[in-house]
Design a protein that fits this description.
Blueprint (H helix, E strand, L loop, with lengths): L24 H11 L26 H16 L8 E5 L5 H9 L4 E6 L2 H13 L5 E5 L12 E7 L11 H10 E14 L8 H13 L6 E2 H10 L2 E8 L1 H8 L2 H14 L6 H16 L6 E10 L1
Helix pairs in contact: 2-3, 6-10
């Protein structure tokens, strides 16, 4: 496999003002288009999520932990590795999880959805570079996915449902439910608030607002509202794991990765615009947010369509 160079200065990157409506499609696209290349500092394979630490990964190998999170998703889908399955990735980013599962399920088709055209272009190039023919990314809204109704055997979402509407993310959950066959499996990995917003500690509230603003989202889901929304849309939870301590070893690497990234950008004369600076602030604050255990947790939720 050849190393694929992701351009650091793609044509659309300009100094953008922060007058984009927070959490709008335009804000989300601008954020991921500008910060997308910077994720290589976090993961050579462009895993745009936190990792899962266990005895196989150890505490220090970030890429192993990131790839293990992909495998945890695959495990919880409960599919035979050599079956012929239709699998949907709801919010695929640069396609790292789709590629990983494409290798794990070689006779299946994995189709990823994103509203960011640049992610489709570069993610498909990365997948092709890995020699995969059964994984592909597409431009599509998760709330109105391109999948035909009841066409998927399984689906997953890794740190993407936080971009849905409201505290219950009902618009994304509805799109997921409509796409799954009866008894189809689902896995959702994300951070969730666990207290009503009006009960937030003032310090947590300040950190939370920085994260939401600079990661281009309005709110993280509230775990209770989210679980109710799954139930209302015919999705039964079978397992729910609070994986906060599992992801902590990768989260704790954020300051070191950020410092190294800033030094390399300074040395290379790379000027960061507002969205890229905001991304770095959100990464640091996201790590701090996870320390407020009474306010925020990271869950892996799995179940099936009933």
């Amino acid at each position: 496999m050849k190393t694929l160079a992701i351009p650091l200065n793609h044509p659309h990157i300009e100094e953008k003002t922060m007058d984009l409506k927070q959490g709008s499609r335009e804000h989300i696209r601008a954020y991921f288009e500008d910060s997308g290349p910077d994720y290589k500092a976090w993961s050579p394979n462009y895993n745009m999520h936190f990792g899962y630490c266990n005895s196989r990964t150890g505490f220090f190998s970030r890429e192993k932990m990131l790839e293990q999170m992909n495998q945890e998703v695959g495990d919880r889908l409960q599919l035979l590795d050599f079956g012929n399955w239709q699998i949907g990735d709801f919010g695929c980013g640069m396609g790292a999880t789709a590629a990983c599962l494409g290798e794990r399920f070689p006779y299946s088709e994995i189709n990823g959805l994103t509203i960011v055209p640049w992610q489709v272009q570069m993610g498909n190039a990365l997948i092709k570079n890995r020699g995969l023919k059964n994984a592909r990314l597409h431009l599509s809204d998760i709330s109105n996915p391109l999948f035909p109704t009841k066409s998927l055997d399984a689906a997953y979402a890794v740190e993407s449902f936080c971009y849905g509407e409201g505290l219950d993310k009902a618009n994304f959950i509805k799109g997921l439910s409509q796409s799954l066959k009866h008894d189809g499996r689902f896995v959702i990995v994300d951070g969730f608030i666990t207290k009503p917003k009006e009960e937030f500690n003032p310090i947590f509230r300040s950190i939370y607002e920085v994260v939401c603003k600079n990661w281009a989202l309005n709110d993280f889901a509230h775990i209770d509202a989210f679980k109710n929304s799954l139930k209302e849309n015919g999705l039964r939870i079978e397992t729910i794991e609070d994986a906060s301590w599992r992801v902590a070893p990768t989260a704790l690497q954020v300051p070191a990765v950020t410092t190294k990234f800033l030094w390399e950008r300074f040395r290379n004369g790379d000027r960061l615009n507002q969205l890229r600076w905001g991304h770095l602030k959100a990464c640091i604050c996201g790590m701090l947010m996870g320390m407020f255990r009474s306010h925020f947790s990271y869950y892996i939720i799995s179940g099936r369509k009933i």
